[in-house]
Amino acid sequence: MSKDDQAMADEWAAAMDEDKQPSKDVAGTGAGKGESKAGSPDLDVILDIPVRISMEVGSTAITIRNLLQLNQGSVIELDRLAGEPLDVLVNGTLIAHGEVVVVNDKFGIRMTDVISPSERIKKLR
C-alpha cells in the first residue's frame, strides 16, 4: 500500500471514528445523527441536498485573444464528433453519458450509459 493510500485510509478511519461518537437524538428515534434505529447510515438525511447537474457537449481551449474576437455568428470547434454522447456531470463529476431528446418543446437527455459507483470512486483518486 502506497503512502497516499495509507493516508487516505487513515483519514477514512478517523472520519468513521468521529461518526461513531455519541450525538444528540434525531427526531426522537433513539438513533444518533445520520443513523437509523439499526445503526446503519440513514440516507434520508442527504436525499434533499440539492446538486448541480449539467450536460457537456464538448470542450476546447482557445487563447484570450481568440476569445475576445468572438461575436455573433462565430463558430467554436469542439473536441467531440457530431452524434457522440454527451457527458452528464453532477457537481462536476462524470456520472453518465447520454443523448439529447426533446420533451414538451424543451431539451432533455436520455441516459445511455451510467458510470458505476465503483468507477466514480476510482476517478476521485
TrEMBL record:
GO terms for biological process: bacterial-type flagellum-dependent cell motility; chemotaxis. Residues 1-41 are annotated as: Disordered. Residues 46-115 form the Flagellar motor switch protein FliN-like C-terminal domain. Keywords: Cell membrane, Chemotaxis, Flagellar rotation, Membrane. GO terms for cellular component: bacterial-type flagellum basal body; plasma membrane. Pfam families: FliMN_C (PF01052). One of its GO terms (molecular function) is cytoskeletal motor activity. Belongs to the FliN/MopA/SpaO family. This is Flagellar motor switch protein FliN-like C-terminal domain-containing protein. It comes from marine sediment metagenome.
